C-alpha cells in the first residue's frame, strides 16, 4: 500500500512546485503565441486552462517520484503504566531534548 501513500517529502514538494511553474509558463507562452497567431484571445485562455489541468494532474497526486526522500521518524517511547503511577501509558520525554 506504500505505492498509494499520500506523504510527499520536502524535496518532492520542491520538485512539484518547480514542475508546476514550468508547465504553467510553457502553456502560457504557447497559448499567447498561438492566440496572437490566430488573433483569438479565447485560444490563449483555452490553452492556459489546459496547462492548469495538466499541471494539476502532474503535481497534485503524490506520485512515486515525489516520495523518494522520505523522512525517518523517531519511534514513540512508551512508559509502562506501572512506572507512570498506575495511569495509562505516557510518552517518555526525557530523551527528546537531545534531538532539539
Automatic annotation (TrEMBL):
<dbReference type="GO" id="GO:0005787">
    <property type="term" value="C:signal peptidase complex"/>
</dbReference>
<dbReference type="GO" id="GO:0045047">
    <property type="term" value="P:protein targeting to ER"/>
</dbReference>
<dbReference type="GO" id="GO:0006465">
    <property type="term" value="P:signal peptide processing"/>
</dbReference>
<keyword id="KW-1133">Transmembrane helix</keyword>
<comment type="similarity">
    <text>Belongs to the SPCS1 family.</text>
</comment>
<protein>
    <recommendedName>
        <fullName>Signal peptidase complex subunit 1</fullName>
    </recommendedName>
</protein>
<keyword id="KW-0256">Endoplasmic reticulum</keyword>
<feature type="transmembrane region" description="Helical">
    <location>
        <begin position="18"/>
        <end position="37"/>
    </location>
</feature>
<dbReference type="InterPro" id="IPR009542">
    <property type="entry name" value="Spc1/SPCS1"/>
</dbReference>
<keyword id="KW-0472">Membrane</keyword>
<comment type="function">
    <text>Component of the signal peptidase complex (SPC) which catalyzes the cleavage of N-terminal signal sequences from nascent proteins as they are translocated into the lumen of the endoplasmic reticulum. Dispensable for SPC enzymatic activity.</text>
</comment>
<feature type="transmembrane region" description="Helical">
    <location>
        <begin position="44"/>
        <end position="66"/>
    </location>
</feature>
<keyword id="KW-0812">Transmembrane</keyword>
<dbReference type="Pfam" id="PF06645">
    <property type="entry name" value="SPC12"/>
</dbReference>
Amino acid at each position: 500500500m506504500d505505492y498509494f501513500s499520500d506523504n510527499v517529502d520536502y524535496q518532492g514538494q520542491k520538485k512539484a512546485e518547480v514542475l508546476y511553474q514550468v508547465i504553467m509558463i510553457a502553456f502560457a507562452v504557447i497559448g499567447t503565441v498561438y492566440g496572437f497567431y490566430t488573433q483569438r484571445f479565447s485560444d490563449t485562455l483555452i490553452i492556459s486552462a489546459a496547462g492548469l489541468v495538466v499541471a494539476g494532474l502532474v503535481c497534485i497526486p503524490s506520485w512515486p517520484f515525489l516520495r523518494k526522500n522520505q523522512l525517518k521518524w523517531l519511534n514513540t517511547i512508551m512508559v509502562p503504566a506501572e512506572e507512570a503511577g498506575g495511569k495509562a501509558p505516557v510518552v517518555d520525554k526525557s530523551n527528546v531534548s537531545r534531538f532539539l
